């Protein structure tokens, strides 16, 4: 494979760090960017990962010791134009993988300030990236992490970003209309709209990955040395349903799906995320192309997920209970859901599906660190509609 | 008519000030908000209005003298959460008319900083408004100025904000997909998406007015006293095509449509803008309704507009020439364009169409102030695709 310069924005995060190791191990020249604001947000809302994470500097050092490979680091804020411009002038990436955004729906719904913070951070960061690409690396390929949540749950099949609409006897290929469920999801919709424009007008190359919910704690690379693990969140703000349910089972408290649990979502294993991003990088978007992939491998309802955890736990001798709680979000709990996801399998993706074995390995890992579980951060603290604002 | 508390955001602007006088004259309790940043931007890019505009304080004083009516004023930045929250707590508006945004496509395309400034100012201002509504005036009606430019020029008929899509045998009513032509237009798309969410989740009432290009220098109220006139921009940044063409005719320089001039747009007279906003206010959106009106009365191509000015000028003894110049924007110059605009006429709008008489009255007004014309600010300075940025 041709060696590429790969710039990873948000390189300290749950996906950013494993992605950095993955590309580094394959021999690419990797640089990571982060300002560690996510760690600060975690501290502010009391949502630390189950197993403490060494600093990024330390992780890069451990990686070098374990593999002999160097990862470069830029520390700073993507919302600062000149910082971003400097990275692009200096590193001149061939591929940019952009995870550098505030990633939580509940965080974005905590109030006026958090909403603004989320939308400014995400939208302005991405604007600075495309301006820097235009200026310094107009042929580079931006791989931008979006989310399946941008689409919401429409009553028609969800296509991959674009849809051909026939209306009153005429036809056009248009962006798929979106109906997202939080100000965080909206920030990603804004990004997508800005990016489509940048491709159309400036001729940039962009792949927008509308990703499902990622699960899994390990990749080939996290296992290479102690301290290379990635963050595992099980709280109500940064944790996702499967993580929360596993921790609840281990902690001996009820598994708590929100509402009826009939909400369906796309899911994928973290090792598939890495492969999807790699496939996108190996097959870049064409000049001026705004390409969208729906990146997930399976659809489950939240109730099904709870049942899976309960049954895997039972196999390990843990008797877990399921208790439905009032849904803090405003969302449909019974709905049609049939999103297309053909592009990535066509490029070669071989999915790692969610097996009992995987859930059991997550449970086993959590059991190892059972004493670190903080039960108080699991139940929902942020309401989509509240009286107090 | 029931007397209402009307809050006008951007009350110092081309439309904001005439709207304030219009509602004040009808007996409503009017408050205006502005931080005069638009005047600063005008100074920064050398784009002052043809006829100087007294300060907002002075205009409010003149209005009081002329009519006995008081207009309240709040000075501050809509992007500051606490400033906006304070206004809503203090004034408790029934209707909010939101013009308080950076209104220029070329300004938003001047570079990275201007793009960020435009999107932050517009998106965060609107977020602060909806949070303040939710907190202090959940039953109030927000009338938000959007633009027809949000839609771009799709190959299908443009519906009013929503479209029912039939796809693979299923159906849903969805937001009309948009393909805007600048980062300014994108900021309004972001607003629309945020607003739809706020209606859906918080039950707010919002009318999004996707307005065409407004022309005209006078309303019933601007004539009531000296100093009550509104701003007339003819420069490349804040001026619109009709204004530029009229000034070019008077200045004796060629009228310069961009490119082929086959670009079609919706237009309306400023007096119709006032009536449209009033009709929206009189017939508020329902609780939880995100309502979109396409607000224009006629469609012209830019070439037709140039011809109209040339012919009206000829009637006044002015021989104007038309010279097509290279289009600084990236846009289709020949395209299908058939936007629906039924909602406002159904509520009672009686359009004032663009007549020779109107163009001649604009020309006459410009001739009065001919010595103030600065020819150097008319030709395009901002390119959508340039080599230097």
TrEMBL record, chains A, B:
SUPFAM superfamilies: NAD(P)-binding Rossmann-fold domains (SSF51735). InterPro entries: Epimerase_deHydtase, NAD(P)-bd_dom_sf. Residues 6-294 form the NAD-dependent epimerase/dehydratase domain. This is NAD-dependent dehydratase. It comes from Candidatus Kaiserbacteria bacterium CG10_big_fil_rev_8_21_14_0_10_59_10. It holds the Pfam family Epimerase. Belongs to the NAD(P)-dependent epimerase/dehydratase family. Gene3D superfamilies: NAD(P)-binding Rossmann-like Domain (3.40.50.720), UDP-galactose 4-epimerase, domain 1 (3.90.25.10).
